[in-house]
Amino acid sequence: MAEGNENYQGGSGWTDDTRGSRADRADRGGSNARTSNAASSGTDLFDRVPPHDDDAEMAVLGGMLMSKDAIGEVSQTIEVTDFYQPKHQIVYNAIIDLFAASQPVDVVLVANQLLADGNLDKVGGADYLHSLVASVPTAANAMYYAQIVHQRAILRNVIAAGTKIAQLGYSAEGSQAEDVVNLAQSEVYEMSMGKVRQDYAAIGPVVHDALDQLDKLQQGLVNKGVPTGFRDIDDVTQGLQPGQMVVVAGRPAMGKSTLGIDFARAAALHHGLTSIVFSLEMSKVELAQRIISAETNIPMAALRRADDITPERWNTLNQFWTKMQNAPLFIDDSPNMSLMEIRAKCRRLKQTNDLKLVVIDYLQLMTSGKAVESRQQEVSEFSRALKLLAKELEVPVIALSQLNRGPEMRNDKKPQLSDLRESGSIEQDADVVFLVHRPDFYDKEDRPGEADIIMAKHRNGPTETFHLAFLGATSKFKDMPQDYNAQAV
Fold first, then answer.
1. Residues 152 and 229 placed together within one structural domain of the fold
2. Which of 136, 167, 284, 390 could form a disulfide with 62 if both were Cys (CB 3.0 to 4.6 A apart)?
């Protein structure tokens, strides 16, 4: 240490001889010493070897080489990236390739596989494979060792996420703090869900995954999507798909909020899929009244007049309340809700309750909480961010949206995709767009009680117009009879 720092006593601080003004300490070089010490500690922290357990990794591979049952169990717990040692990743891949091809797995066959791939020397030859088997007495503990490997991988992910978040903080001087917080939350979410980002993938495995999904659909092993509760819509869309941004749009009082809540009711109350409704327009009580009315068929007007609730209706309401105790439907009516809040709450629900559907009522009422050049630009940012949220959480996000006055300028009053208000990017970002049209809103004699749900955009299939009944008294849409034939559509 330099002579000017001779009185500095390591971590214990400064001696009495050096106590004085800050200027005196600076002159003696004390501040520099402390700064240097802190910097050295930080450097040492990131110079450490990342958490891993070579013995556990060897034991996992040894157990997999000894037992096919161990392969099936371990492959459900860990991925190739959970292994710290590159040679262990290579061996694991070889074992999984043989197992996936329904081939027997042992040291000799894995060695031949590695030799054919040109990787045998990279892992240390056949002798190393034999040492893996010798490192574990029985394959029965393979899952225990796999848990150790997985836990070490999580710790490495935590370190990587923390490092990236720190870099975001230091390099974001010209950015909005809220944007940096959102990116940090996204990093933590990706890490906690165990996802590994990859920029590209070969077409072969991707096609295999697509065909595998189709096979599972045919066998009924996976759900088709989040059901909307409407026969014809579900038939065309096969349910609302994970990662989709779905827009439900209409003129004021046309029923777009009702349709959005119908989708959430069908998913959460009738199929047990966790759903959340962010209501920027109505209060929780108003939303609850709509849901109660739609589910019990007690008119909305009666729920606002105590005299109209008979003992029979009270009995119906009590039964419904009991049914709702554990229903996976959440409602959030927080005022001035920002996009960042919505994303954070959705990520938390995905982790804690396996969120399956998000409904936002409605897009034009959202706020970014920061200065923007124009409202159109702000809505465009919302639209794009919601699409990214749907992909990140792998859930359909339903965004309700207003239409401009375009339909009222036409003779038939029917809405079109170009009527989406304030931003053309909504049309671009959306995977599915439903436009709500009720002819009797403009002419009471024109198909009273009926509604057209116009699928104006369907990225993965045909567009179509669905005919539903609109029950305004109980705030819901309903399927028309099977033999229904719309008139003057």
1. no
2. 136
What residues make up the domain containing 357?
A: 223-487
Q: Is residue 29 part of a domain?
A: no
Contact between 379 and 363 (Cβ < 8 Å): yes
pLDDT tens-place string over residues 390-413? 988 889 999 998 888 888 888 888
Residue 28 has pLDDT above 80, yes or no: no
Structural contact between residues 460 and 469, judged by C-beta atoms closer than 8 angstroms: no
Contacts 24+ apart (CB under 8 A), 451-457: 451/255, 451/477, 452/414, 452/486, 452/489, 453/230, 453/233, 453/259, 453/477, 454/414, 454/415, 455/233, 455/236, 456/415, 456/416, 456/417, 457/417, 457/427, 457/430, 457/431, 457/432, 457/433
Say yes or no: 412 and 266 in one domain: yes
- What residues contact residue 292 under an 8 Å CB cut-off, 6+ apart? 298, 303, 317, 320
Assign residue 274 the CATH number of its domain.
3.40.50.300
pTM of the model: 0.62
Nearest to 60 by CA among 179, 145, 187: 145
Q: In what order do the strands lie in the sheet with 464-471?
A: 329-332, 275-279, 357-361, 397-402, 245-250, 432-437, 450-458, 464-471, 476-479
Query: Which residue is listed with tokens 């990017």?
Result: 425
